[in-house]
Amino acid sequence: MKKIAITGTIGSGKTTVGILLRRRRLPVFNADQYSRMLLQKTHPAYREITEVFTDHILDETGEIDRKKLAGEIFGDEEKRKKLNEITHGYIKKGLLEFFEYHKDAPLVFAEIPLLYEAGWDVLFDECAVITCSDETAVGRLMEYRDFTREDAESRLKSQIGKKEQIARADRVFYNDGTIKELDEQIGRWIFELRRGGHGTQA
Question: Among residues 79, 60, 62, which one has the least CA distance to residue 70?
Answer without folding.
Answer: 79
